[in-house]
Specification:
The chain is mostly helical.
Length: 216
Amino acid sequence: MVVGPIDSPETFKDKAYTALRNVIVSSDVYRSRTDIRLDERQLAQDFGISRTPVREAMAQLEREGFVRSVPRRGIYVVRKTKEEVIQMITAWAALESMAARLITERASDADIAGLRRMFATFEGDRLHAKLDEYSEVNINFHQTIIELSGNHVLIRLAENLFTHMRMIRRQTIGEEDRADRSIRDHMNIIQALEARDTERAEDLVRQPAPRTTRRT
């Protein structure tokens, strides 16, 4: 877990919130065998700010379900239950399928071409040599699908959920054949979007959800 000083004039609380959320996403909570504790004092020191904005950011993250405060023990990264994870995956699939529909109706050809360019460096045998890089591109792909919908309400609804999904996807992308299947799924989705095939695009976006829930 790598953190560094915060030196932007933007409010320290907002910067602390963003930095802490990045720390949480990178913590691999679903792979860890023990609870991950966040040390408020140490984090404030690492960020180069006082403890007050860190405490305020922690409070916001707790309201959003990312951390939990345990009296006399500290603050811990939340590991969602299996049922909660399944519900999040189902909700994300619903939001992303709606986004896919909107893309076929509204997005430009250039926007959709940008989705295909994301995967240009993973052709042939290069995928397995770049799994960490692919994991980030995979996550960015799903986020971009939401953003290209152009629906700001949908984007806001997905924002909090997306951070949880990043944590879940970090756990599964390295599993056997997961990356190969993932990139095939993405190429099929892109082809449907390019063809403006609304029903197929929606269906293809929803298809991975049952597989992901079974692996949870």
